[in-house]
Amino acid sequence: METKNIKRFLEQIAKEIVAGAKKNLTADKGSTKLEGTIRAEVVSDDKGFTTKFYMDNYGAYLDEGVSGNKKPQNFKDYKGTTRISSHKYTTKGPPIDIISKWIKKKGIEPKGLGRGRSKKSGQYISGFAYLISRKIKRDGIKSLSFFQQPLGVGYEKIKEKLLKELKIDVTNYIVAYTK
Q1: DSSP 70
Q2: What is the rounded CA–CA span in Å between residue 9 and residue 13?
Q3: Tag placement on the chain: N or C end, fewer CB within 10 Å?
Q4: CB burial class (10 A; 0-12, 13-18, 19+) of residue 17?
Q5: Any domain includes 133
Q6: Are the beta carbons of 18 and 11 closer than 8 angstroms?
């Protein structure tokens, strides 16, 4: 049986979910490299259809957030249920060198915290970067739910309209079969 309408419908929903995720990410973080990596693919096989979503691994951390070792972070999944993030800092925090580069990129000039050298890279790092890393390790990173929210909207549309598309495909099959 041909299932063109179902596949077209799922591709349209996937396209809307990707567009919504990109829009939410841009609204929350501004334009990022992550935005360019979000995409979807609808694959059909003998068992049915599968919609696969792809993005950089970093996207999962932004979407769910990361729990700290002292404070859990919550996020809303696509069904609207509040859940605790599956990602967590335990013994290590984010790399100080990366935070130091971020501080420099943002033009932040901490005063009176001193500078030292990183044992790994030999680069100069500020005490401010160390303090930020320690706070992130303790409290975690807040969830953006940039992907979960449009996924929930798409899920509701599928629940509402998939049977209509299936009806059209079945009707077309019956009409073609009886001719």
Answers
A1: S
A2: 6
A3: C
A4: buried
A5: no
A6: no
**pLDDT in the model for residue 173:** 65
| The Cα angle at residue 35 between residues 34 and 36, in degrees rounded to 5 | 90
Q: What distances in angstroms separate CA 66 from CA 85, 100, 138, 139, one per listed residue?
A: 6, 20, 10, 9
- Residue indicated by tokens 């077209």: 8
The helix/strand/coil state of 102 is helix
Give the DSSP letter of residue 117. Answer: E
Examine residue 126 and state whether it is found in any structural domain, yes or no.
Answer: no
Identify the pLDDT of residue 114. 56
Q: Domains in the chain: how many in total?
A: 1
Residue with tokens 């003998």: 46
Helix, strand, coil % over all residues of the chain, rounded to 5: 50, 15, 30
User: Which whole number is the average pLDDT over 71-100?
Assistant: 88
In a domain, 20, yes or no: yes
Predicted TM-score of the model (pTM) = 0.74
Q: Which residues make Cβ contacts (< 8 Å) with residue 130, sequence separation at least 6?
A: 96
Domain extent for 29:
1-65+144-179
Q: For residues 43-59, give the mean pLDDT.
A: 88
User: Which pLDDT belongs to residue 129?
Assistant: 84
